[in-house]
Amino acid sequence: MENVESLVLEQLKILRNEILAFRSENQSEFGEIKHRLTRVESSIASMRGESVGTQEDVYRQQGVIDSIKERLQRIEKRLEITG
Question: For a Cys staple, 81 with which of 43, 56, 57, 76, CB 3.0–4.6 Å?
Fold first, then answer.
């Protein structure tokens, strides 16, 4: 009976060590995954910011184009040029 208890204890110790090793590996991998996810999220946020900036540039340029069109129309009207 003592032999059986000894074997069971030995197996339990082996299982405990394997579980601890498994936890350690998973924690390391989980940390790496979290780090990579943070980089992806940062990249997405950066791209969104660039997209917003680009859209603002388009609106600003459209405003400038509209202003130039108005000025051109006034010049054509003064010179009696029809387009």
Answer: 76
Where residue 82 falls (left for φ over 0; alpha for ψ -120 to 50; beta otherwise) is: beta
From CA 64, how far away is CA 13, in angstroms rounded? 76
Q: Which two tokens stand for residue 14?
A: 């082996």
Distance of alpha carbon 36 from alpha carbon 29, whole angstroms: 11
pLDDT digit string, tens, across residues 29-82: 888 899 999 999 988 888 887 887 888 888 999 999 999 999 999 999 989 887
Cα 55 to its chain centre, rounded Å, is 19
* Cα–Cα distance measured from residue 8 to residue 2, given in angstroms and rounded to the nearest whole number: 10
Within 10 angstroms of residue 44's Cβ, the number of other Cβ atoms is 10
